[in-house]
Amino acid sequence: MQEICLPPNHDTTAASLRNIGTIYYAKGDYDEALDYSLKSLRMQEICLPPNHDSTAACLINIANIYYTKGDYNQALEYSLKSLRMQEICLPPNHDTTAASLRNIGTIYYAKGDYDEALQYCLKALRMHEICLPPNHHTTAASLMTTGNIYYSTGDYDQALQYCLKALRIKAICLPPNHDSTAASLINIGNIYHKKGDYDQALEYSLKSLRMQEICLPPNHDNTAASLMNIGNIYYSKGDYDQPLEYYLKGLKMREISLPPNHDRTAASLMNIGNIYHKKGDYHQALHYSLKLLRMHEICLPPNHDSTAACLINIGNIYYTKRDYNQALEYSLKALKMREISLPSNHDSTAASLRNIANIYRAKGDYDQALEYSLKSLRMHEICLPANHDARAESLMNIGNIYQAAGGNEQALIYYLKA
């Protein structure tokens, strides 16, 4: 109707197009969302003055669509255009400009450029502290984003400082047992886990779980993620019974709440398989690991490295069971995948070669063991720095093979190099 009764390129028609794009975005139809949003943008560029805040808002919408589609370069391009407009058309230290800065930081974070991500997020945080009331939830969100970036850089003390500040603000500005507060507790638990403070990690993670059980619907994936995190902490403490309990609960939730063959369900299966392997229950370890393999073969592209990692885990279980023929079969499959999917001379491929060498050594086939070990060593010498532990381990393995084959002098040469 607007296209009939209004002049061409009218701002009201442009607003309608943008709204339709927003609805398609909410429905998960990102191509249609992009189509309508780009139409809206072209119309606004004709009918509105330069650097109009509505055009800036449209650019943000387009950036969000590209971000959700995983096209971070396009997301960044539209976000930076929007920011430049906002800096012209809005007053200094405006909360909308601050939101754009944080969004740009988030895109750089997704691209793995943590220095740029930190620069934009800290600018956003300073702006939020000027333009928003004290203890505002948006400031808390900026603090959390900044904390997450520090976490990814391995600066766990700074990460903890920002995440604890965010938690204190959320405790003031949000209702009790809010899912956003629970998310902060999870993040803090993860930081303590990385710092090796398992008791504090458990305390925060269990608080988060209790909160999620109150504020989220039953079998929610965020609750399942908390269960998995708690299992991981117990695993790090060397307690294999407790993690199994939490992992199995998390798996049941994910099988209910997620679509079939989902990658997060796959992660749960992997953890459970690893725990059973650690506990020496090889039958159950194989059951869950083979289930995971079938899932990867359905939902991942051919020769994906996660499938290769799963094959290696299965090979390791068979190796521990001393079923060396099966161990070799799965390990060789994994090696073939890695040679296709990874760059040449990748350390993961070198690790696969070393695993295969260990299997041949266990079978008493020292010539094959030596061939694969030397390949692994040559690859490690290319892809890893000197004095890396993996290089030393490869040298030790070669020494062990020579010693097992009766070549003590050669063994000594490699042991001394290691």
Automatic annotation (TrEMBL):
<dbReference type="InterPro" id="IPR019734">
    <property type="entry name" value="TPR_rpt"/>
</dbReference>
<feature type="repeat" description="TPR">
    <location>
        <begin position="182"/>
        <end position="215"/>
    </location>
</feature>
<feature type="repeat" description="TPR">
    <location>
        <begin position="350"/>
        <end position="383"/>
    </location>
</feature>
<protein>
    <recommendedName>
        <fullName>Kinesin light chain</fullName>
    </recommendedName>
</protein>
<dbReference type="InterPro" id="IPR011990">
    <property type="entry name" value="TPR-like_helical_dom_sf"/>
</dbReference>
<feature type="repeat" description="TPR">
    <location>
        <begin position="308"/>
        <end position="341"/>
    </location>
</feature>
<dbReference type="InterPro" id="IPR006597">
    <property type="entry name" value="Sel1-like"/>
</dbReference>
<keyword id="KW-0802">TPR repeat</keyword>
<feature type="repeat" description="TPR">
    <location>
        <begin position="140"/>
        <end position="173"/>
    </location>
</feature>
<feature type="repeat" description="TPR">
    <location>
        <begin position="98"/>
        <end position="131"/>
    </location>
</feature>
<feature type="repeat" description="TPR">
    <location>
        <begin position="266"/>
        <end position="299"/>
    </location>
</feature>
<feature type="repeat" description="TPR">
    <location>
        <begin position="224"/>
        <end position="257"/>
    </location>
</feature>
<feature type="repeat" description="TPR">
    <location>
        <begin position="14"/>
        <end position="47"/>
    </location>
</feature>
<keyword id="KW-0677">Repeat</keyword>
<dbReference type="Pfam" id="PF13424">
    <property type="entry name" value="TPR_12"/>
</dbReference>
